[in-house]
């Protein structure tokens, strides 16, 4: 499904939400195309699972060879696992945090990314696209150490990468959420484990509140739309304990359970079973 997040005569933002097979084992993921006049940028193009379908879907709207940028919020496999193929199919540079600048070439064949990586400093910046700029906003530790969110001032969309993610199907991801309360159960487990610390969530919310936002659009699951739902999201993350807030010495123990490679399940240690523990 291609969801048109925004369109006017000169500018559009498209979201592709169901390019990965639903019954597979890979997490649902969204990819994004922003077009401003005759310039285009692909945001978080994804892994190899999505490449063929995404290439065809993008081609219906914009010639991939004319893309100005491949933009990556961070360096996870579901973000740039397909980098080698995009570097082969386009002439676009990769825009990514400096933290990952010298790691990204591990996704490509030798030399393919040479002189084609724009390393963004921790402070972020404004990236020209057509007649407008995309804001690359610091979002480090949400969840990745070197991480950016992307604000498009024309559509007033904030692309939030792995923040605001919900675990839903591709079809559900195409339905923007306006009632945050009912949506929290789809987000909570992910954010508690994948976000690093409440301190970072509060710093991010303080920054994001300064923007005029119509929609928060995550890289997995459904967009969050409308002032009320967005305000509720800010309030929710500010009060959320996550990551290192929740990890204590209980987690950092020498393990005793065994991994059964046949069933792929954990088994209690034999001694523990014998002792009835
Ligand atoms: Fe990630
Ligand atoms: Fe992700």
TrEMBL record:
Q: What is this protein called?
A: Beta-lactamase domain protein
Source taxon at top rank: Bacteria
Indicate the segments forming the Metallo-beta-lactamase domain, all copies: 28-220
Origin species: Verminephrobacter eiseniae (strain EF01-2)
> Which SUPFAM superfamilies does this chain map to?
Metallo-hydrolase/oxidoreductase
Q: Which InterPro entries match?
A: Metallo-B-lactamas, ODP_dom, RibonucZ/Hydroxyglut_hydro
Enumerate the Pfam families for this protein.
ODP
Which CDD domains would you find in this protein's record?
A: flavodiiron_proteins_MBL-fold
